[in-house]
Design a protein that fits this description.
Elements lengths: L2 E6 L7 H15 L4 E6 L5 H12 L5 H25 L4 E4 L6 E3 L8 E4 L2 H8 L3 E5 L2 E3 L5 E3 L4 H12 L4 E6 L20 E3 H9 L7 H10 L3 E5 L7 E4 L9 E5 L3 E5 L7 H13 L4 E6 L3 E6 L5 H10 L1
Parallel strand pairs: 1-2, 1-9, 2-6, 3-6, 9-11, 10-12
Antiparallel strand pairs: 4-5, 7-8, 11-12, 13-14, 14-16, 15-16
Helix pairs in contact: 1-3, 2-3, 5-7, 6-7, 8-9
């Protein structure tokens, strides 16, 4: 029997209606005779709300107490989802980070996972339970709660998948996968069916918000295929793996610091693409400060902010 890990982000569990959508996706995979482990983020903007409330109480709250506070968001999510699954007739159990054996270093607010003792998780899976785990959190040698920082639930999901030698890790969110550009900005952006870990790392490091770079690094290290999908439809997502299908341009990312990056395996040898980009920059009289080319990325820094219209033009020519 295969083990599959599913992660649902905050927008995917923000309401009872959305929790129900997540539950149906879990049930569908469970009914196909898979062991299911689910990693859940805090609902909606819960974490931001808790941070604001802490700032109202203290100008400088301790990192330790912030970890205790912020970890509560994920615990609410796992309890609600487990209740719902049980109500639907599917055995589910919620586990916090420490109950799941997620051991971290002593850093608060940005802890690093050092080891995962899967004994409790495996025990529950052997009883055919759906194991619902709080993302973003673990515990340290002092038995204190720690949190993993930005993208922490992604990191939890991939790390758990690696520890369990899972077949796949699904990352569900409000987007259908990885796109050639931000579809909210570039209307002609297309979904990428498959890309390599290296390409996804390049995208994540440049600010693409589909996956956090720490989670991709773990996926690459342990060769766990990562499938990014939407919670809200049944469309095929994007698969991140070690299979490099072709040396083509995959995506374009614009960072707020006036940097445009073009991502794709073998791009260092794609002189045609570089010429097209330079030509478009010259046409629009943009002033470049720096140009870097690597195996998977062309990054260009500009003196001034670059408009979305320029990004769309470069996306179009490529």
């Amino acid at each position: 029997m295969d083990t599959i890990v599913l992660k649902f982000g905050g927008s995917s569990v923000a309401s009872n209606e959305r929790l129900d959508m997540a539950a149906e996706k879990i049930i569908d995979l469970y009914d196909k005779n898979n062991n299911i482990v689910v990693i859940v983020s805090a609902q909606g903007k819960t974490t931001d709300k808790l941070i604001r409330e802490s700032e109202e109480l203290s100008r400088d709250p301790s990192d330790r107490e912030l970890d205790v506070l912020l970890s509560a968001g994920e615990q609410i999510s796992i309890a609600k989802l487990s209740m719902l699954l049980n109500e639907k007739g599917y055995p589910a159990i919620s586990l916090t980070g420490w109950q799941s054996g997620i051991f971290t270093n002593n850093t608060n607010q940005n802890a690093i996972i050092e080891n995962i003792d899967t004994t409790r998780i495996n025990k529950e899976l052997e009883e055919r339970k759906i194991v619902v785990i709080a993302g973003f959190q673990g515990f340290n040698e002092n038995l204190d709660i720690t949190t993993l920082g930005r993208g922490g639930s992604d990191t939890t999901a991939i790390a758990i998948a690696a520890a369990l030698k899972a077949k796949n890790c699904y990352i569900f969110s409000d987007v259908e996968g990885v796109y050639t550009a931000d579809p909210n900005i570039i209307k002609s952006a297309k979904k990428i069916p498959a890309l390599s870990y290296e390409e996804m790392l390049a995208l994540s490091s440049e600010g693409a918000k589909v996956l956090h770079n720490r989670s991709v690094e773990i996926g690459e290290k342990f060769k766990i295929p990562i499938i990014t999908k939407s919670t809200f439809n049944k469309e095929a997502g994007s698969v991140v793996s070690d299979v490099i299908e072709e040396n083509t341009i995959k995506s374009i990312v614009k960072k707020d610091i006036s940097r445009i990056s073009i991502i794709g395996n073998g791009i260092i040898r794609n002189t045609t693409a570089l010429k097209k980009v330079i030509s478009e920059i010259e046409k629009n009289k943009l002033e470049m400060l720096n140009l870097n080319v690597s195996e998977t990325k062309i990054s260009i820094d500009f003196k001034n902010m670059v408009s979305d219209e320029i990004l769309e033009k470069i996306h179009s020519v490529l």
